[in-house]
Amino acid sequence: MRVITHHSAARLWLLCTPGTSYAFRLDADDVPRHVHWGRPLSLEQAVAVAADLPAEDPGGDDPGGEEYAVEGGLRFGAPSLTVRFADGVRGFAWRFVSHSVEGGRLTLSFTDRVRCLSLDLNYRIRDGHDQIERWAVLTAGEQVDVLRLDSAAWTLPARDDYRVSHVVGEWGREFQLRRDHVPVGESVFTSRLGITGQHAGPWLMLDAQDAAEEHGEVWSAALAWSGSRRITVRRDPYGRASWTGGFGHEGLVWKLAAGEQLETPVFTGLYAPDGFGGTSRRWHAFVEGEVLPARPAERPLIFNSWEATEFDISEKQQRELAGLAAGLGVEVFVVDDAWFGARTGDAAGLGDWWPNPDRFPQGLGPLADQVRALGMGFGLWVEPEAVNPDSDLFRGHPDWVLSQDGRTRTQRRNQHVLNFARRDVREWAVEWLVRTVTELDVAFLKWDMNRPFSEAGQPGATDPDRVWIEHTRGVYEVMDRLRAARPGLYLESCAGGGGRADLGVLSRADQIWTSDNTDAADRVAIQHGHGQLLPARTMGAWVTDSPNSHTARATSIRYRFHVSMAGALGIGGDLRNWSEEDLAWARMLVGQYKRIRPVVHGGVQYRLDHDAVQYVTRDEAVVFQFQPSALTRTTARTRLKGLDPDARYQDEDTGAVHEGAVLLSHGLPPLLPFDRTSELVHLRRLPR
Ligand code: DGJ
Q1: Core-most of 227, 297, 447, 525, by most CB within 10 Å?
Q2: Are residues 363 and 389 in the same domain?
Q3: Count of other CB atoms within 10 angstroms of residue 669
Q4: How many domains does the chain have?
Q5: Residue 156 carries which DSSP code?
Q6: Is 516 an annotated catalytic residue?
Q7: Are residues 516 and 488 in the same domain?
């Protein structure tokens, strides 16, 4: 149930989702002020809360608690909106114009009291979800510089203390979950990369230092944007916390001419009363139901050639790998980098998107046909936003890359960034992408992006900093047009591993390449961080060789599979070197994966004690237990969650029957024998 109500005398709006309420009001000066974000309230209760809010700020010099802070007057916090008019005047003086409700969407329209500038604050709630989506639209009636235009500001109720949960990392160490104390002051969570980045996720969760996995209040928000961003968390000395966030990092200026509009990405907020587990499950349901492209939950089981071959690929070797992959039950065979142009290493060929004539003399058609004859779909790697200087594309269009006059064009991985803010670049990308996936009947495309922006300019442009917005929008446009042309295509978002994982790209990509670190033990921590916000079906997870090429750690085939089977399983090892025994294990585990996949990709996820994770549907449950280290191994039983206490469940592999109530209160036995580093238990509810 979702309801938006308005109390005209109190000038208050109340948004009610199935489990939460959100309220704000206009004060006597038309300034929107936050009232409530938390447990469900009636309209009368929300009005009473608003009436009790102090009219004056306790500190006396900063109103605080604003729904969307602007500059002007005695405001000294981080503004959500900063503008500067041509005559140097700054700030926004609120005048309320109107409000409208359309379905689950509420729009409040404001204008500046004297200047020609309008601002719409938008809210949207969706059936069956507790998320509140917010975004802003700025319309200029006169020329104005926009120094900050956040999507939304989010205010928490006063608490004694606050903690922020977020993910940090780098290449090979993405999605490392941290829970840090929020200091009094301002803490900035940002990307200046032009892409989402591996160093930090575009989301955060705040609690009052009292939430745990299954209890306690958690307030969270995720920005649907794949470019630079800034989220500023503010904690004041009076016990209040809030954050404001949106696209762009500090120092950028966007110019609006009279009549021009700038719309922010959506910043989605969520209140959950049931801990980090409840928060994650609500995000998973929202991402699955409202963000991801509509398609069946189950993701295809892919083979990807990268870790097996890197740049050293040939048609013969790919055919051999395809034969072995098909023998294991793989569903899509993906040729990674180095199939095109003069790309035999990372120094040349990027941008020349035709099959390398030395490696594929007849093109990719014969390989794609063989892959299909083996019963698999054909997949390809691309990196459309990047170009090697040593390429025909760059030689023909040196002006297509991000650059600034007189500045060195810095290279990273021997490549530049193509400026997708340019229409001609987007048209070029759409043309070759649609042609390639159509001609080869490509079923799965891995879209990579291996470098951040540098010298991010567009010589001659009147509004050069716009590239930070328009590049990302350009990428979205190309992805959208590609999907429209090939609706069946699966898209995987990758940026040197998990560097582009956000709700913006996930409304056009089906999954994320989570990390180039495929070491199973490291992956448990990486997957734990990924799953805080994103569901298992979006989490690409390959089984690769042992010892691992990244960490040199040797692990059993069974353990590697179990870790990857908790996400969207793929295989990325050099199957030519796998022993007969490992290939037999792989065939068996792939068969088991296909039986549990509807539960992992379509069920509800619970994180259990002892590094265990569980997926539950009405009739089935799948539990993964990971205990690779003797130092952390426990003899305690792992209690299950989300089961029917009155039902009985049968273990699909051993036939053992367990009572739901017993599994919920006493759990499964610990891992035995001790040489097992992981266990997978598949339970099915028995009919009454
Ligand atoms: C970075 C990706 O993360 C890898 O999986 C692989 O696709 C390489 N790029 C190819 O250059």
Answers
A1: 227
A2: yes
A3: 12
A4: 3
A5: P
A6: yes
A7: yes
448 lines ligand 1 (CB under 6 A): yes
Residue 228 is part of which domain span?
69-291
Residue 74 is assigned to a structural domain of this protein = yes
Q: Which residues of 57-94 are buried (b: 16+ CB within 10 A; e: fewer)?
A: beeeebbbbbbbbbbbeebebbbbbbbebeeeeebbbb
- Residue 73: CATH number of its domain: 2.70.98.60
The contacts of residue 429 (CB under 8 Å, 6+ apart) are 384, 418, 420, 478
Residue 278 lies in a domain: yes
Q: What's the CA gap between 669 and 676, in Å, rounded?
A: 13
Residue 307 CA: nearest ligand 1 atom is 5
Q: Are residues 282 and 325 in the same domain?
A: no
Which residue's CA lies nearest to atom 2 of ligand 1? 496
Question: What sign for the dihedral angle of Cα 199, 205, 209, 213?
Answer: negative
Q: Find where tokens 């023998």 sit.
A: 327
Q: Is 290 in the pocket of ligand 1 (CB under 6 A)?
A: no
- Same structural domain, 373 and 446: yes
325 CA to middle of ligand 1, Å?
A: 20
For ligand 1, mutation pick of 513, 544, 549 (most atoms within 8 Å of CB): 513
User: Is 617 in the same domain as 588?
Assistant: no
Digit-coded pLDDT (tens) for 75-122: 888 999 999 999 999 999 999 999 999 999 999 999 999 999 999 999
Residue among 377, 298, 366, 300 nearest 333 (CA): 377
Please give the full DSSP string across 667-688, using - where no structure is assigned: -BPPP-STT--EEEEEEEEPP-
34 inside domain = no
Report CA(283)–ligand 1 centroid distance (Å). 28
Q: What is the pLDDT of residues 331-352, one digit of tens each?
A: 999 999 999 999 999 999 999 9
- Residue 614 one-letter amino acid: Q
CB 516 within 8 A of CB 550: yes
**Which member of 337, 352, 448, 545 is catalytic?**
448
Q: Are 435 and 480 in contact (CB under 8 A)?
A: no
Average pLDDT, the chain: 95
- All residues at 6 or more sequence positions from 358 whose CB lies less than 8 Å from its CB, including other chains: none
**What whole-number distance in Å separates Cα of residue 623 and Cα of residue 647?**
17
Residue whose Cα lies nearest atom 6 of ligand 1: it is 306
Contact 149, 136 (CB under 8 A): yes
- pLDDT at residue 674 greater than cutoff 60: no
List, in sequence order, every residue forming a beta bridge with 246; answer none if it has no partner: 230
Q: Take residue 554 and report the two structure tokens written for it.
A: 């040797």
The pLDDT tens digits of the residues spanning 63-77 come to: 568 999 999 988 888
Q: Are 537 and 511 in contact, with CB atoms under 8 Å apart?
A: yes
- Choosing from 120, 336, 516, 611, the catalytic residue is 516
7 CB-near residues (< 8 Å, 6+ apart) = 13, 14, 43, 46, 47
Active site residue 369: no
CB 264 within 8 A of CB 150: yes
272's tokens: 């959950």
Pairwise CA distance, residues 444 & 488, whole Å: 9
Whether 553 is covered by a domain: the verdict is yes
Unique residue bearing structure tokens 């991801």: 292
162 lines ligand 1 (CB under 6 A): no
**For 533-584, how does the pLDDT look when each residue is reduced to its tens digit (9 = 90+)?**
999 999 999 999 999 999 999 999 999 999 999 999 999 999 999 999 999 9
Query: Taking a C-beta distance cutoff of 8 angstroms, is the pair 530, 555 a contact?
Result: no
Question: If we measure between CA atoms, which residue out of 469, 483, 351 comes closest to residue 421?
Answer: 469
> Residue 57's pLDDT is what?
58
pTM for this prediction? 0.97
